[in-house]
Amino acid sequence: MSAVIYQIYPRSFADSDGDGVGDLQGVRAHLDHLVWLGVDAIWLSPFYRSPMADFGYDVSDYCDVDPLFGTLADFDALVADAHALGLKVVVDWVPNHTSDRHRWFVDARASRDADHRDFYVWRDPSPDGGPPNNWVRAWGEQPAWTLDPATGQWYLHLFLPEQPDLDWQNPAVAAAMHDVLRFWLDRGVDGFRMDVLHALGKDPALPDDDPELLPIPHSALNHHRSTHDIVRNLRGVLEEYDGDRMMVGEIFLLDTALVATYYDGGEGVHLAFNFPPLYAPWDAASWQVQVEAVAREIEPVGWPSWVLSNHDQPRHRTRYGSPARARAAAVLLLGLRGTPFLYAGEELGLEDAEVPAERAVDPGGRDGCRAPIPWDATPTHGWSTADAWLPWPPDADRRDVASLRTQETSILHLYRRLLTERRTSPALTLGEQELLRAPDGVLAWQRRADGDERRVLVNFTGEAVSDGLVGQSTGWAVRVSSDGRGEAGPFGGTLRPDQAVMLAPAVE
Ligand code: NOJ
Prior knowledge:
Layout: E1 5-8, H1 10-13, H2 24-29, H3 31-37, E2 41-44, E3 48-49, E4 61-65, H4 72-84, E5 88-93, H5 103-108, E6 122-123, E7 145-148, E8 153-156, H6 171-186, E9 191-194, H7 226-239, E10 246-249, H8 256-260, E11 271-272, H9 276-279, H10 284-298, E12 305-307, H11 316-320, H12 323-335, E13 339-343, H13 401-405, H14 411-424, H15 426-430, E14 432-436, E15 442-449, E16 452-459, H16 468-471, E17 476-481, E18 500-505
Parallel strand pairs: 1-2, 1-13, 2-5, 5-9, 9-10, 10-11, 12-13
Antiparallel strand pairs: 3-4, 6-8, 7-8, 14-15, 15-16, 16-18, 17-18
The structure holds 1-deoxynojirimycin.
């Protein structure tokens, strides 16, 4: 619960073999950065065998490493090194769909009575010969169904046609996918990030979505209560193992009350991603609504999680629009009660890359946030070639790890100080949280545990603020300031524009 988890998108993290695509040896070679930074765990996005129609979220073999990323031996070495350095390893698990090249699907489409036919969701055409219902797939208003001409039936895919949905109503699917979890648990992984977990259970009747609400691919419309049984069984698999093996569910339902149901009284997920805050603008009132929703819906039933950026959304540095805001957002993320997820590169203040149309590769238009991580200021940025699979993010020769490490005032050092502060303060890691009444444009809260106390003030406005609670906080000392100024001194009672501070009671 007290961990901070750092997401690595393996294609974009670090390349060890000269092909311009990151790999597991590249990750292994840079674990020291993560230890220096002070995170507790890494989450690796998929590195399994895949034709890469969805860059690894289309898995053709769940129990092997794609040669692009290395080998199983590389994975074992990575886990061994990470554990030796005190880092836990969480891997992605993609249960809603396989690749269309997975041997199960290759078999399934061979004939209507193939062994694996019922691993997938097949239906006859609707009476007019079209798709069986009106569901639409992700990325484009197209049917979530593809006709397989050879067998005359349609198969369901909430994502690309190359990503056929598994049928989790079939116990054989559950058993086979549980074995996949065991395969990685046996190799020593500490947990799983579970892809589109909320969509596993489908209403067997596959009713049409309300046309008024379309298109909302794989959203609440496809959320079915049978998913909770599926999730409880997954939890059961984790509990066959010793230690703190955890699961974090990608619950892509933009409703915090629904997200909360996935904790299921301690029998569901350990953590659920709650995405509404990721869509909130840089605005105190909007964030207050989000923090209150989490306090109301999630805190009574489970431990919250917080995430500002990932491989599916424009980076928050890009969304919020300024370096000062990205710094204040770091204080926000690391000051709230719950498990923070950092997305590799946010500690460098990276913006999305500008990806010209001829270099765009992702069917979902998400290339910008997947730009490679610059490790140094040289033309190859510490990669084995300057020709990485995607263009570099802006200012890669200034916002690189090596350059920022030499600058105490950099955002990288801010993240490091925040992580140290968090780790050493019981109030910040596990403490209670109380929102405080703050002037307009400021979000303020207090954390408390075992006599330890911290107060966090975030100024979401471009103006200085010194009224109300801000001016009244002069009895506190600045532990961390988003602009790096005034740390270790008394808080002066004014927040500068877009400044956030983490305060501790002043020592008498
Ligand atoms: C969510 C993942 O984060 C995204 O990258 C992927 O495309 C979809 N699930 C489908 O697996």
